[in-house]
Amino acid sequence: MSDSLSTGLLHTGDGQFYKKFSNYASVPESFPIFLTSVFAFDDVPSVDAIYEHEAEGYIYSRIRHPNADAAAEILAEADGGEDALVFSSGMSAIIISILSFVQAGDHIVSSPVLYGGVHDYLSKELKRFGVDVTFVDFLRGDVEKALRPNTKLIYTETLSNPLLEVPDIRKIADVAHRHGLKFLIDNTFATPVVVRPLELGADLVLYSATKYLGGHSDIVGGAVVGSHEVIEAVRPKLVLYGAVPGPLEGWLLARSLRTLELRLTRHSENALRVARFLEGHPKVEKVYYPGLESSPDHERAKAQFRGGLYGGMLSFNLRGGEREASTVISSLKKIKYVPSLAGTATTLSYAAKTSHRFYSPEERERAGITMGQLRLSIGLEDPDDIIADLNGALEKI
Ligand SMILES: Cc1ncc(COP(=O)(O)O)c(C=O)c1O
User: Fold this and answer.
1) What is the pTM for the complete model shown?
2) Beta strands in the chain (DSSP E)
């Protein structure tokens, strides 16, 4: 007797699709998208074996799923880490990682120039949970002096947003480890193509995968890379808070990671060309790009960064303020005003009005963020065309 139509519709092909490939002479060249929230089992011991780490397999996609794992595996390799995790956003990656190492009564030391959302989290939100944060200028201040008996971690960025400052990663790692602390570093702007912080002593490298790792302005995601031990300290919190990316985002991230080195090399080469152009322009007061020999960060960057690449991000101060910045933004023809970064095309952002909008005026001043300051995410175009567009807009001031 055949099944009813509804039962047939529901059960035909049950679990056979991927099993088929084990008998075929070919497998899909592109890793498939596993658009499933859960996995099916024939018996109880099969699930037990996965929970008990006696067998490999998937149970429920919030716990882990193949497309998240595929992206994590590529990223761990790129960063020289033992393992990685991918998240639904950069913020969830950062917050869940921090929460994995602190609890009420603990203390964090952080640099003050950070992506605005993270600065908000550290300076305001964490207070609600009884965690104190001290902000220290990692270049001009003394990190060690800011430590307290209850300090649990040190936090900074490899290339700060938006001023592209470069900390001495090894020095901070040494301080952290002398005091038994974890050192977490956001490598979003640089990526492992430019610097691999684990090799310099960081414990956990964090990413907004929305930026270069994704690289095409089409996903929101996050990631962290570290040793097995550190990743296993974070994984339970990722599962608990449920910040897993969907299978499509995982797939897109894995796809994009394949071209990361190619993209970052071109982003970096173009950015150096544009930085040199802006440095010589009479309407520009100052350029922030560690690839410039004139940058106070150049020697530190050169000593730590890989292969003479300094990334695709740069900022510059116009001679002027908000009016001049607005004129440049509305006079650009190809370069769009986009409050994010790291897509394939060159875009421009205005930190004081977007990413750092919620810094108080004093915090902005302390961080060196001004109303005449613009941030460029240099794309993959012919650099002469980027320069021509910028030159035309600067002439309108
Ligand atoms: C350096 C840096 N870290 C973290 C984030 C947060 O990432 P997401 O927007 O993916 O949550 C951003 C976002 O702009 C960023 O620039």
Assistant:
1) 0.95
2) 83-87, 107-110, 132-135, 151-157, 182-186, 204-208, 222-226, 284-288, 313-318, 336-337, 347-349, 373-377
